[in-house]
Structures are given as C-alpha cells and as structure tokens.
UniProtKB/TrEMBL annotation, chain A:
GO annotations of cellular component type: cytoplasmic exosome (RNase complex); nuclear exosome (RNase complex); nucleolus
Gene coding for it: EXOSC5
Occurrences of domain Exoribonuclease phosphorolytic (ranges): 53-151
GO MF assignments: DNA binding; RNA binding
Species for this entry: Leptobrachium leishanense (Leishan spiny toad)
Compartments, as annotated in UniProt: Cytoplasm; Nucleus, Nucleolus
Record InterPro entries: ExoRNase_PH_dom1 (IPR001247), ExoRNase_PH_dom2_sf (IPR036345), PNPase/RNase_PH_dom_sf (IPR027408), Ribosomal_Su5_D2-typ_SF (IPR020568), RNase_PH (IPR050080)
Family annotation (Gene3D superfamilies): GHMP Kinase, N-terminal domain
Family the UniProt entry places it in: Belongs to the RNase PH family.
Signal peptide: 1-26
Subunit-structure text: Homodimer. Component of the RNA exosome core complex (Exo-9), composed of EXOSC1, EXOSC2, EXOSC3, EXOSC4, EXOSC5, EXOSC6, EXOSC7, EXOSC8 and EXOSC9; within the complex interacts with EXOSC3, EXOSC8, and EXOSC9. The catalytically inactive RNA exosome core complex (Exo-9) associates with the catalytic subunit EXOSC10/RRP6. Exo-9 may associate with DIS3 to form the nucleolar exosome complex, or DIS3L to form the cytoplasmic exosome complex.
Superkingdom of this protein's organism: Eukaryota
UniProt name for this protein: Exosome complex component RRP46
Keyword Signal tagged: yes
UniProtKB/TrEMBL annotation, chain B:
A single BP term in Gene Ontology: nuclear mRNA surveillance
GO-annotated molecular function: RNA binding
Assembly, per entry: Component of the RNA exosome core complex (Exo-9), composed of EXOSC1, EXOSC2, EXOSC3, EXOSC4, EXOSC5, EXOSC6, EXOSC7, EXOSC8 and EXOSC9; within the complex interacts with EXOSC2, EXOSC7 and EXOSC9. The catalytically inactive RNA exosome core complex (Exo-9) associates with the catalytic subunit EXOSC10/RRP6. Exo-9 may associate with DIS3 to form the nucleolar exosome complex, or DIS3L to form the cytoplasmic exosome complex.
Domain Exoribonuclease phosphorolytic: start-end pairs: 21-152, 155-220
Family as reported in the entry's similarity comment: Belongs to the RNase PH family.
Name of this chain's protein: Exosome complex component RRP41
Keyword Cytoplasm: yes
Primary location: cytoplasm
Cell location: Cytoplasm; Nucleus, Nucleolus; Nucleus, Nucleoplasm
Top-level lineage group: Eukaryota
UniProt keyword list: Acetylation, Cytoplasm, Exosome, Nucleus, RNA-binding, rRNA processing
The keyword Nucleus is assigned to this record: yes
Source organism: Leptobrachium leishanense
UniProtKB/TrEMBL annotation, chain C:
Localization annotation: Cytoplasm; Nucleus, Nucleolus
One GO cellular component term noted in the UniProt record for this chain: cytoplasmic exosome (RNase complex)
The Exoribonuclease phosphorolytic domain, residue ranges: 31-166, 193-256
Pfam entry (one): RNase_PH_C
Family statement: Belongs to the RNase PH family.
Protein name stated in the entry: Exosome complex component RRP43
Length: 239, 249, 277
C-alpha cells in the first residue's frame, strides 16, 4: 500500500537573499546581508518581508515528488516544473525563457530517475530585484531543493559577472552596474567538479573574458557552497 | 473603369498569357524527411508547401474518432511575409478557417478514408508566397503530398480557378485579376471521372455564361492534371533509380 | 538488424559509433551537416532566405513596416523576431499558441540581434520621434531535425543581407511619408553573428550540429554565437552536463572556424544571386 500523500511528499521552502560578493579579485569576497530561513509553510515567510530592504531576494518553494497529470507524465524520470513569478504582473516571455533556463539547470542536478512518473514543482517568487536576479533564482532553487531533501547529483549556484567598457570584471552587480555594463554573464557552477553547468549572457565579449569570468565564478562558487553548508548546519543544529 | 486593362484587344492578359493558358507549374515531391509525405509547388508566383502525416492514431480528443473511416485534419496557414501587407495572423483568422474547411471537404471526398477506420490523417499546407489561386495551389500541393505519403485516393484532385472578364473566360487567375473583383470560380476536380470535389463561386455571373466558365475551369484542371501526373512519374523514376542503384550495390 | 538494435537501445547504438569517433550518419564529431542557403526566393517579402542544415529547414521572411518610435527612444527603430514551430515541421508540435521551444528560440534570436549590435537601431530611423522602420523577421520551420538555433541564425543573417528598404521622405507640408520605391538601399549590417551548437553525449563526447535524434539522446546542449571579430555574442548552455572551461574553449575554437565557413557561404550565394540578375 502506498503511504499517504502527506507523508511521502517532501516539501521545502527557502527564502534566499542574495549574498553580496562584491569586490572579488581586489579584496576577499564578503558575504553579508545574508538570511537563510526555512520553513515548511510559505505563509510564515511572508511575515519576514518587512525586515528586508534593498538587496535582491527571491522566495522559493519546492513541491513534490507528487502526483502528475497523465499528459505531462514521463515514464522514466520525474517531470520538473519551474514557475517564476515576477514581483508584479503576469509572467512575460522574458520570465518564460528564464524559467526554461532554471528548469534545465535543476533537471541536471536532480536525480529524476529516482522518481519516475511524478512531478517536482519549483515555485520562485521574486520579492525584490536589485540586480543579479537570475543568479539569485538559481541559488534559491538549489537551497530549496536541498531543504526539500531531494536527492541531488551535485549542488549548484548562480554567479553573475559584469564586464564594463574597460574590460573590468565585477561579480554580483547591482542593477545599476548591470545596466551600465558592456556584457553580463550568468554562470551556474556545480559543486562536485566545479564545472560550468549553465551559461547565459547579454552583450558581446571575448573568449578570454569568458574564461576570466568562469575562473572568478568558480572562486565565488566555493564561497556560496560554504555558505550553503553553514546555513544548513545552523538550521539543523537548532532543533 | 480602372486604368488596368486585364485583357488586351489582341487577347493577351496582363502577364502575357492567353485566356485559357495556365501559369508555369513547378512541383517537387518528397522534399522533407520528417513528414510521411510532402510536396512543394509553384504556380506562377504562388508558392505553397504541403505536408502530410498519417494515417496515425487519433491525437487530441478521442471523441473525434470515427468508427468507419479516417478523420481528415487540415490546417491552412499563410506565412506572414507571403502577401504585400504583412499578415498579422498566419492562421486561425476567418479566411484561413474557411480555407481549412474547404480543404478538409475536398480531401474527405477524394481520400479512401474508409480504409483507415479510427485513424487520423493530417494535411498541413503553408502558403509561402501568395499571388492568386491560393486554394487551388494548396489543393494541388496537398494531392502530391498525399501521393508521396502513399495514401490511396480515388483519383488525383486537381484544382484551378477561372474568371470571366470582357465576355471571355480566363483560366488560372493571378492576384491582379482576382483583385479586379470580377466573378471567380474555384474548381477541384477528380479528372478521370469528371467528378467535382469542390466548387465555389464568388461575385455575380450570368447563368448563360456559367457553362463556358465551367468548361474553361474543367479544361484548366485537366491541364493541371497532366503536369501533376508528369511530376509524380518523374519523382517515381528518381526514387526507383535510387533504389535500383542500392540494389546493384 | 541494425535498425532493430537502434530502436531498442538507441543509446548503446550511438555509443558504438562514438567509440570509433564517428556518427551514424557518417559524419565526424566536429563536422556540420551540408549547409545550403537560398536567398531572395520570396518576392513578396522585403528580404528572405531559406537555410538548410541537413534536413533541418527554416525559412526567414523579413517585412519592413512603418511605426511610431517609443517615447524614450525616439530615434530608434526596432526588430521583432518570431519563430514559428507549427505541426507542419514535426509531429512533436501541437497546433495552437507558440510553445516553450518556439518562445525560447524567438527570445534567443532577439538577444543575438541586440547583443551583436549587427544593425544599429538608429539606422532604422526615418524621422526622429515620428517615424521609424520595424523589421518583422518571421521564421517558419519547415522541417525540424535538430539544431534549430543555428539554422535560424543562418537564415537571419542571409535574409537581412537581402533586405532592401525604399527611400522615404517626409513631406513637410502634409507631414505624410512619401515612399520612393525606385531607389532602394540595403541595410547597413555591422556584424554577422553565426551560431554553432553542440550536443554533449554521456558527459564526454562533444558532437557539433546535432540532429533531432542526437539532441533527444544528448545529456547537454550548448550554443555559441560568434561574430567576425571573434567576439562572443551569446552563449546558451541550459543545464545538462557540466563542462570544464577547457572543453568550452574547444567549442569556441570550433565556432570560430564555423563562422568563416558560413560567412563565405553566404557571400558566395549573394554573389551568385547578384550575377543572375
């Protein structure tokens, strides 16, 4: 007999506030303004809203593995859905293409074959956007998956790099820096081999600049993974 | 009267054709790999593409299933860049829906649907460039695509339009002649048995003239048939030559 | 026998080939399918091109229209790409509004146009604040067999080079635009971005220009868009197998040679079109 739906279903929910990594290269990267709070009910998290000002934050919820509509069912792996909700209004084509990118990144991390014919839904609600939004969404998605206890091949994190007109590289830009830059690169790095999982970009840049950005992102990724670990430790040591 | 003279005193039309003359038809079958059958046809400047999938099991709602014959599913669409003005909606507008219905009716009459009960045949036609006679070009393209897919038909379906200008029936109207607003007749014919699969007429035409226009359209359809038949034969020869080569090796 | 093996164990079937560094269709791993480009075949469009990579066929038609510019960019025209994946090109697409893949492709093309700065939007201005050109670039996929993005970008570059816009003057008395169809001029195209796609197989093999079948079996996809100055205009790697920076560099080198191949092909076709006239 199948266990009851409530008990067999993992659910995780994460409030991700983009850690600030500004100044990589010159000074050691700093992680501050970081809150990682987790709760099984999104409702509780909304109360924290008033604490937050300024930086980018995204609320992520993971539901599943759960039942699925027959039309969407895949017989050999889980169907992963990502829903990206903008702060105001309805999702436009921009959000749709970002959704696709996040989904495919999550798909490669989640061991979908363990949950055939079921659905895993990741809901991302943008709370405030102060730059590096897509990277923030990726981080939120990964921590939420972690919190949901879904088996993952590796962890992943998103890092945004901007290149200005002099070719100067900045990590984790604000929206102003992003707007003024010549090129923006969003990279997702995986935790096991430190390889590049996802690349998306805006603007034009050279191959050398790409390699530089990847190297910088790989360094930053280590900080983020450490942060994941610390947060998880803190969360589970409390109770 | 508009400045444009559609039929000169010497009996030539705007593009230099005689009254009963067709535009140049070029056809190619089996142009795409994905589809079960496909064909590309050019009639003068009108260019159309037809693709056939099937017969396969019913997709979408199962309630459409017919237990004694196959469902014929058509979609007619015009590329946004096919007309002088950019088309906002390539398909789904009222005119395209009407065309879709006409194509469906035409091919339900011609395909031996009773051979494939509880199945579906999809016919998709795409106009890439429009210069009059869109319906007819689509029917001709679809006929070739169905033959390419190997779906049995009663006969070829050949379609051609005809008009009536200055007391003369004209075959295979171009866009300029269509736009002049005279009577217009579209005929889809099964040429061997002289059976009509679809006949449609717009505008007004005196009953006395109908027979002459019909005769012109019928003759034009038979001319189209000769060209299509030639295209099929050439295609067959090509294919069998290729198979023959492989057989030798 | 082989056909049966392929149906039952498609992955194993591919692995057998990849071990010998070749593919079932006879190509090497770094080899593109035959690319054909046909320019200017649709006379009702202001510019058109048909691009074919093996079986994958895309036709691009460009229509220019007048429009009022946006208030915050009064001297900029705009380019609107739209990719259509109808059930005509493959049975995997359903009729109805554009699906996820079509939307993604449209967005990708729009990004390529923006990122590469191939056309200065200011060049599409007729009268600042009043009238600008809009270029509607409509792509119709006629036969879907993998590597849609490369085919679309090829068609786009070829079609844009085929565009001729009529001279337009604003009549000062009436304020209306007067179009002179006799004097037409081509677009000023500053950069020619070309896309090169790869499929990653079993996390190790890199296959250039994947077919539909290869795409569905692959563990990861990667598209690199590059212009003639070897600048990257867009990289799209949506998840899948993780790649090391060295592997990425390998792909970039292949993209550089691919750019030269396509560029010379487009030039060749344009020359032959010109000499025909």
């Amino acid at each position: 007999m199948l266990p009851q739906k409530q008990t067999c279903c993992w659910a995780g929910c994460i409030w991700w506030l983009q850690p600030t990594l500004r100044g990589i290269g010159a000074t050691p990267p700093l992680l501050h303004y970081v809150f990682l709070l987790a709760c099984h009910r999104p409702r509780c998290l909304l109360l924290i809203n008033s604490f937050l000002t300024g930086d980018t934050s995204v609320l992520a919820g993971v539901y599943g593995p759960a039942e699925i509509k027959v039309s969407k069912e895949l017989h050999d792996k889980a169907t992963i859905e990502v829903i990206l909700r903008p702060k105001v209004g309805l999702p436009a084509i921009q959000e749709k293409s970002q959704e696709l990118l996040i989904r495919e990144t999550c798909e490669s991390a989640i061991m979908g074959a363990l949950h055939p014919r079921s659905s895993i839904t990741i809901v991302l609600q943008i709370v405030s956007d102060a730059g590096s939004l897509l990277a923030c969404c990726l981080n939120a998605a990964c921590t939420a998956l972690m919190d949901a206890g879904l088996p993952l091949r590796y962890l992943f994190c998103g890092v945004t790099c901007v290149l200005d007109t002099d070719g100067h590289l900045t990590l984790d830009p604000s929206s102003k820096q992003q707007k003024e830059s010549r090129a923006v690169l969003i990279l997702a790095i995986e935790s096991v081999e430190n390889k590049v999982l996802t690349v998306a970009s805006r603007g034009a840049y050279s191959a050398t600049e790409l390699q530089q950005s990847i190297a910088a992102a790989q360094v930053a990724a280590q900080k983020i993974f450490k942060f994941y670990r610390d947060s998880a430790r803190r969360r589970y040591s409390k109770s | 009267m508009a400045g444009l003279e559609l039929l000169s005193d010497q009996g030539y039309r705007v593009d230099g054709r005689k009254a009963g003359e067709l535009r140049k038809i070029q056809a190619r079958m089996g142009v795409f790999a994905q589809a079960d059958g496909s064909a590309y046809i050019e009639q003068g400047n009108t260019k159309a593409l037809a693709v056939v999938y099937g017969p396969h099991e019913i997709r979408g709602s199962r309630s459409k299933t017919l237990h004694d014959r196959a469902v014929v599913n058509c979609q007619y669409s015009m590329a946004t860049f096919s007309t002088g003005e950019r088309k906002r909606r390539p398909h789904g507008d009222r005119k395209s829906t009407e065309m879709t219905l006409h194509l469906k009716q035409t091919f339900e009459a011609a395909i031996l649907t009773q051979l494939y009960p509880r199945s579906q045949i999809d016919i998709y036609v795409q106009i890439l460039q429009a210069d009059g006679g869109n319906y007819c070009t689509c029917v001709n393209a679809a006929t070739l695509a169905i033959i390419d897919a190997g779906i049995p038909m009663r006969d070829y379906v050949c379609a051609c339009s005809a008009g009536f200008i200055e007391d003369t029936p004209l075959a295979d109207l171009s866009y300029v002649e269509e736009a002049a607003g005279g009577p217009q007749l579209a005929l889809a014919l099964l040429p061997k048995s002289d059976q009509i699969a679809l006949l449609e007429m717009n505008s007004r035409l005196h009953e006395d003239h109908l027979e002459r226009v019909m005769d012109a359209a019928t003759k034009a359809c038979k001319d189209v048939y000769a060209v299509l038949d030639q295209a099929v034969k050439e295609h067959l020869q090509e294919v069998s030559a290729m198979l023959g080569d492989r057989g030798m090796a | 026998m082989a056909a049966g093996f392929k149906t039952v164990e498609p992955l194993e079937y591919y692995r057998k080939f990849l071990k010998e560094s070749c593919r079932p269709d006879g190509r090497e791993l770094t080899q593109f399918r035959t690319t054909t480009i046909n320019i200017g075949s649709i006379t009702t469009a202001d510019g058109s091109a048909l691009a074919k990579l093996g079986n994958c066929t895309v036709i691009c038609g460009i229509k220019a229209e007048f429009a009022a510019p946006l208030a915050d960019t009064p001297s900029k025209g705009y380019i609107v790409p739209n990719v259509e994946l109808t059930p005509l090109c493959s049975s995997r697409f359903r009729p109805g509004p554009p699906g996820e893949e079509a939307q993604m492709a449209s967005q990708f093309i729009a990004d390529v146009i923006d990122n590469s700065q191939m056309i200065l939007k200011e060049d599409l201005c007729i009268s600042s604040g009043k009238l600008v050109w809009v270029l509607y670039c409509d792509f119709i996929c006629l036969d879907y067999d993998g590597n849609l993005l490369d085919t679309c970008v090829c068609a786009l570059v070829a079609a844009l080079r085929n565009v001729r816009l009529p001279a337009v003057k604003i009549n000062e008395d009436t304020g209306l635009a007067e179009v002179n169809l006799k004097t037409t001029s081509p677009l000023k195209i500053l950069k020619h971005p070309i896309a090169t796609s790869f499929a990653v197989f079993d996390d190790t093999f890199l296959l250039v220009d994947p077919t539909g079948e290869e795409e569905s079996l692959a563990t990861g996809l990667l598209t690199i868009v590059m212009d003639e100055d070897e600048r990257l205009c867009s990289i799209r790697k949506p998840g899948g197998s993780a790649l090391s920076p060295e592997k990425l560099q390998e792909c970039i080198s292949r993209a550089i040679t691919r750019h030269k191949e396509v560029q010379s092909l487009v030039n060749e076709v344009l020359e032959s079109v010109k000499s025909e006239k």
